[in-house]
Amino acid sequence: MAKPNKETPVLKGIDAINFINEMKEADINKAPRAEKDRTFNHFATMAAIANFK
What we know:
flat, 60% helix, 53 residues
């Protein structure tokens, strides 16, 4: 039987500031569209040759 989920803690103070700054940095440093397309193409190639049973 699964355990009940705990509440998500609320970030306050310096933890909240650090989290916001990390989210802003992650938004700025997103992968370029060409890299995403290249990664998807590699995935599609591997999925096509994979033999899962």
